[in-house]
Amino acid sequence: MSLAWLWLAGFSFANAPVSAAETLATPAIQIQSNLLYKTDGTISEYEKERCRLDLYWPAGRTGFASIVWFHGGALKEGTKDDAFNRRIAQRFAQAGVAVVMANYRLSPKAKYPAYIEDAAAAFAWTRVHIAEHGGDPAKVFVGGHSAGGYLTLMIGLDASYLKPYALAPSAIAGLIPVSGQTMTHYTVREERGLDKDVILADDAAPIHHVNKTAPPMLVLYAENDMPARAEENLYLVAALQAAGHQRVTQRQFAGRDHGSIAGQIPQAGDPVAEAILGFIARSP
Questions:
Q1: Per the count of CB atoms within 10 A, which of 6, 36, 215, 227 is most buried?
Q2: Hey, is 187 helix, strand or coil?
Q3: First to last CA, the chain
Q4: Is residue 19 in a domain?
Q5: Model-level pTM?
């Protein structure tokens, strides 16, 4: 476990030199790294390795909102530790929104529903601990890109995952899936011995759990997204609206593809980042 105070200029890391003027103009971000979010005595060695998070929060502030963010990687790869995910966390923390950047177990070493259970545990940890750092436990959002968007939707729509923590999806301030899969994830299909292109919408699919009481939702996807990914997201929005859900918004981003819809979030003025921050700011 490490604890560091960072004065960040733009999207530079802590060891980059900054001038006195830059220091005065740049918000301070405090970072706590590699916190274990599962702590009971029954967890495996693999859980001890992967069930860790980094917390980025705006120094000197209280009552701020937070977002638990899950990286992409087809449920097979990815890490909170790469420079891209660190820059996403810095981008939002500089805007006054804390970020919990969480790892989770990966397939094939772990199989469905292990990674979804990890996502729920990371959210539950945040609800318990964010106040210790000045955050508001009632303003904890959940988001992520691609596979991270799938995890976001699963814990926000299927109440069974938060139930072990005496929580319900209503405890989530809002869901922000970015190009998430809304059918049964193709990696889950592969784990079951099915062709990854076989379309399935069983209990491992967010669409299967659509309901009118789900948390507020901002559904984001790219104009040039993966094949059928935009259509999946549009179908999710339509199904939510048909079920009576009145707090869902969808946005397609022109000129973006499956990678760049998240890849450009750290850039100044990025419309995806601004949409996310606007959604958080407008939430009660």
A1: 215
A2: helix
A3: 34
A4: no
A5: 0.91
CATH number, residue 66:
3.40.50.1820
Report the C-alpha gap between 143 and 38 in whole angstroms.
Answer: 20
Coil, strand or helix at 120: helix
- Nearest to residue 171, comparing CAs of 155, 150, 154? 155
Does 11 reside within a domain? no
Domain count, the chain: 1
**In the numeric block, which tokens belong to residue 161?**
């995952």
Any domain includes 124: yes
CA angle 97, 98, 103 (to 5 degrees): 135
Residues 6+ apart with CB under 8 A from 202: 184, 208
CB atoms closer than 10 angstroms to residue 25: 10
pLDDT tens digits for 34-91? 999 998 889 999 999 999 999 999 999 999 999 999 999 999 999 999 999 999 999 9
Percentage of the chain surpassing pLDDT 90? 88
Which domain range does residue 200 map to? 31-282
93: pLDDT strictly greater than 90: yes
User: Taking the CA atoms of the chain, what radius of gyration do you get in angstroms?
Assistant: 18
Query: Strand 135-145's sheet: what is its strand order?
Result: 2-7, 28-36, 52-58, 98-102, 64-70, 135-145, 175-178, 217-224, 248-257
